[in-house]
């Protein structure tokens, strides 16, 4: 079960920042290394500078996205009274639209569609994985027992009771 909404927003914001810093740091390290002048000293210095300057900015952008997404998601849970994939899909669309608001209505619409489609794909894959892994752990019906492995039946033909329980 997930955390309650105020804490989930903070948790998602921090997680998104961390992912942005790490992913952006790796990307910027490679980019800085490749774009530097020849020489290992220049390449390492350029790589470190690119990470130092760009990774926090990328992490901040990811944090804004994660915080806004989580806030909209929590709002939808409150309004609709249920947690389902439609909340995430709608949150992705609204987040895309809000973050593109300064670029005009056409950009908002495009970003909303991209955000909704991206989250729909993520939710779809998540549902498929859940369905697939649940099949691995479902209860298997018991196999029919092999009659040769069963103990011999007792004689109940005369009285209807097993012979060991007959009382004289």
Automatic annotation (TrEMBL):
It is found in: Mitochondrion inner membrane. It is a multi-pass membrane protein. The chain crosses the membrane at residues 106-129. Its main location: mitochondrion. The keyword Cytoplasm does not apply. Keywords: Membrane, Mitochondrion, Mitochondrion inner membrane, Transmembrane, Transmembrane helix. GO terms for molecular function: protein transmembrane transporter activity. Pfam families: Tim17. One of its GO terms (biological process) is protein import into mitochondrial matrix. Residues 143-168 are annotated as: Disordered. Residues 157-168 have a biased composition (Polar residues). The keyword Transmembrane helix applies. GO terms for cellular component: TIM23 mitochondrial import inner membrane translocase complex. Essential component of the TIM23 complex, a complex that mediates the translocation of transit peptide-containing proteins across the mitochondrial inner membrane. Belongs to the Tim17/Tim22/Tim23 family. This is Translocase of inner mitochondrial membrane 17B. It comes from Sciurus vulgaris (Eurasian red squirrel).
């Amino acid at each position: 079960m997930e955390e309650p909404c105020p804490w989930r927003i903070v948790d998602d914001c921090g997680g998104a920042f961390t992912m942005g810093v790490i992913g952006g740091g790796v990307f910027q390290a490679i980019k800085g290394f490749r774009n530097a002048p020849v020489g290992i000293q220049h390449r390492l210095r350029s790589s470190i500078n690119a990470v130092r300057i760009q990774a926090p900015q990328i992490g901040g952008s990811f944090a804004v996205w994660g915080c806004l997404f989580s806030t909209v998601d929590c709002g939808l849970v409150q309004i609709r009274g249920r947690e389902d994939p439609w909340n995430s899909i709608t949150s992705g669309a609204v987040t895309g639209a809000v973050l593109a608001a300064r670029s005009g209505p056409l950009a908002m619409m495009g970003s909303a569609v991209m955000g909704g489609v991206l989250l729909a794909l993520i939710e779809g894959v998540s549902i498929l994985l859940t369905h697939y892994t649940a099949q691995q752990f479902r209860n298997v019906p018991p196999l029919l027992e092999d009659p040769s492995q069963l103990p011999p039946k007792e004689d109940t033909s005369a009285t209807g009771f097993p012979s060991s329980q007959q009382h004289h």
